[in-house]
Amino acid sequence: MRKILSSLFILMLATPVLADDIDYFQQYGGGRTNTTSTKAPDYYEQPRVVTVAARTAPVATIPSDRYQTPSGFYLGGNIGMAWSDFEFEMNSAKSILSWSNTTWTTLSLNGGYIMKPINKIAGMIDFGFVYGIMMDSGRAIDDDVYNGGIDTTLFDVVNSGTGGGLISEYPKSLKAFSVGGQDGSMMGYHVAFGLKDMWSAGNVTFTPSIGYRSITQELKVEDSRAVFIEVDSNGNPVLYVASGTADGKTIWGIVPWTPVDNNGDGFIDGYVPSNGTGGTPLDSFYDMLSGTTHKYKATWAGPFVAMDIDNHINAANAINWRLEFGLPIYSATANWPDRGDLQHPTSFKDEGSIGQAYHIGAAMNYVGRITPKLDLVLGVVYDYYILSGGDATTNYDLSWYQDQANNPDSRITQADVDYIEQTCGANGSCKTSKEIDARYKQIGARVGIVSKF
User: Which of 45, 156, 193, 390 is the most exposed place for a label (fewest CB within 10 A)?
Assistant: First the structure.
């Protein structure tokens, strides 16, 4: 009897485990049928005790081929916002022009093709396009004060005595500061070739690539408000005095203002003309200019290398980091439409060869699966471009200078026109080496989708 009771007790303990085991295999495809036996245990039959290991709920894991992305085409797009600063500086002209705190609305398209793997290495072709519109924000500043101002000695020659020719030069500089509204657009593209998921470490894969990237910003200054003042080498304002005529042309002399400290406290209380009588401040004035006063179109274009790092969290979620380094060629054209002494539409041309500029880019994206063929992408991106020592070409309008030389009341003489032609050539184009430094930085946020097919 003790043996029968012991067997019944063991069977009671084992039965729930066996039933649970049958249900599990039915649910997950074991193919077993849950039937209840009515046969009484045989007196001599030892019941079979089954031990079932502890189980956990099934977890979605990354398939073994997740690290080798399937071949095929992909195409996506995104919209975003970006914020940027652009500045270029003229070294000898001592002028700085900047567009600060600029806000952009951007639209991007990208696509490509991942090839079938050969020896577990898959090539890929990637391309993209971006277009941006500047929003109404920030201010553009043309600063000819901070770095010392424009040296006007070269062509603004002062005559003394008679004869009407080049007799003496008076070193002076023009201090100018103008502020205006901003407007503009940008457009860019890239093409690249890479090796998809070439290396892996745990859930992280690495995709190197090389390519060509171009980005163009067309920037404008609108409705400028400007102050101009001409000073001598000591920083004192200057006046012009008509000292007579020669060959029907007015001869202008320079009269500097002398600073006055009335109470001896070391602070300047004002200025008086050094000749005691005064003169005419020809280059000192305030101006209000309507419409577009500056146009600057800059392009950064050249080769780059990049590395994409993908952290595959699971089969439906991933984080992507991208690092990029480029060596762009810089080219820009400018038009100052209110400057009569310059050619239009190309008043200036700036250039930087490969090696004088570089680009650093970084991005982070979250990729989440919506359907097996469609992903959501949320990302941030940062770009920094810099140019050092680019060449600048100024295109003077010789016909304007000739008209001024023929004007009896103008300070421009025939000697000035001859000097420009001798220095710059018959087309009036003067080139200055290592004149331009430029910087452009931008940070943006975007949301988009990518479809795979």
Answer: 45
